[in-house]
Every structure is written in C-alpha cells, then in structure tokens.
Amino acid sequence: MTTLAQRLRAVPSWQVTLSVALFVLGFLVATQVANETERVRYTTQERSPLVETALRLQSQQDALKAAIVELRRRIAELEAAAPGSAAELRQLYADRESARMAAGLLAVTGPGLAFRLEDAPQAASDPEGLVSARDVRVVVEELWLAGAEAIAVNAERVTASTAVLDIGGSILVNSAYLAAPYTISAIGPPDMYERITGSVAFGDFFHDRVERHGVRLGAAELESVDVPAFAGTVNLRFGEPVESPEPAS
Questions:
Q1: What Å distances lie between residue 103 and 99, 177, 232, CA to CA?
Q2: What is the reported pLDDT for 150?
C-alpha cells in the first residue's frame, strides 16, 4: 500500500510551491477585500451627515427664496395702491416694471432657445468629459452676445451679479448648488440661434468640448420660454444712487 509520505514525494516540488503560493495569494486577496469593505462602510457613514446637512440647507434656502418672491409681490401691490395722479402712477409703474425686468427681478416669458449640457458617456473614466462651470459660462456669455434678454440655468436666473463656479462634482449658480444635466434657457431675438452658432468662440467651444471630449450638447428653438425671477438678494456695499436732477419748471 502506498504510504502518504510516498504519495507526497510523488508530487512534483513545483506543484507544492504553486499550491502554497495560491493559498497565500487567496489569503491576501480576502484580507484586502475585507479592508476595502470596511473602508467604504466608514466613508459612507462619514458622508451621510454631510449629505443630510446639504439637503436641509438647500430646503431652507428654497423656502427663503419663496418668501422673498412673495414679499416682492406684496410690495408691488402696495405701491400700485398708493395715492396720486392715475397717469403718473401708470408711468411710474411702467418704469418700475421695466427696471425690475432688466434687473432680473421679474419672471418673463417669450420666444428663445434652450441648451442642454450633459456629461460625456465616458466621463467616469475621463474627467475632461464632465460638464464644468466654464462650459456653462461660455454658453451664457455667447447667449448674451447673441442678443438674449433673459437667461436662466436650471431655473436660476442669471443677473449681473451671478457667479457660476465649480463646487466638487456640481456647480454653484447664485447661491444654489446644481447638478448635471444643465438646461440653459434664454429669451431673445428670432435669429439668436444663427448668431450663436455663427460665433467663432462658440465654434471653438463646440470643437473642443463636444467633438473632442464628448460632452453632450443639445439645442432647441422654442416659441415660448419661461425664465423665472431672481430670488436672491443683491447687496451693494460700495455703490450709491446718484440723485437725478429735478426737471426745469
């Protein structure tokens, strides 16, 4: 009868070495997977409170914006009910509405365009395929140059004081954190699409970001575009109003 020792001696030494190596490799892989699982679990636990805090702050911010819009509406009603000449009141009201519209404090509607920016399909492996704040700024700037009268990014009104900044994997517009995809809506002249697509700067942007890095860009000409009012606050720290000269009698 063949003894165990004889059977072991019959096994080539390279097989024994390979078996030991595979056992050690399996042990190391199992240890690494366990450590990785533990690390991911701790990372998720650490991020969860941050996400909850961000969502709570965003909800509070939305409520404050709604309150600001409601206060502006009530102020407008009180101003319209002020005593005085009917003709003067109508003119003052018209001037005030024009100023508010130009400042972005009124919601407006009209014909225009809507651009949609989305991350490239391969963005997970190629950071250049992610839509950045710069991409949004380029489209906004080109729309202004093409004659746009009102612009919004994901329902955030763009005004003279609006900043568009990169914040991690999202962007900050005014005081709102926005995530891709980004819809940039604009009200403007009928030939706005021809103007913007004929721009050299927009052509360079399209070649670099869309054709080269795969960022997805869609556009639509619309008969009716709704642009909401700016719901934030503007604090001028240095500028002061200049008194208009009284008309000669």
A1: 6, 22, 12
A2: 96
Q: Determine the CATH number of domain 107-227.
A: 3.30.70.1880
pLDDT tens track for 228-247: 999 877 777 787 778 766 65
Tokens 């009917």 — which residue? 86
Neighbours of 184 (CB within 10 A): 22
The secondary structure of residue 212, as a DSSP letter, is I
The residue ranges of every structural domain in the chain are: 12-82, 107-227
SS3 109: strand
| String of DSSP letters for 1-55 | ---HHHHHHHS-HHHHHHHHHHHHHHHHHHHHHHHHHHHHHHHHHHHHHHHHHHH
Does the pLDDT value for residue 53 go beyond 90?
no
Q: List the alpha helices (DSSP H) in 81-158.
A: 86-103, 133-145
Q: From 135, 141, 143, 142, select the one nearest 118 (Cα to Cα).
A: 135
pTM of the predicted protein model: 0.64
- Give the span between the Cα atoms of 139 and 115, in whole angstroms: 8
pLDDT band, residue 114 (cuts 50/70/90): very high
> Which pLDDT belongs to residue 95?
77
Distance of CA 49 to the CA centre of its chain: 22
| CA 101 – CA 225 distance, rounded (Å) | 15
Please state, in angstroms and rounded to a whole number, the distance separating the CA atoms of residues 16 and 35: 29
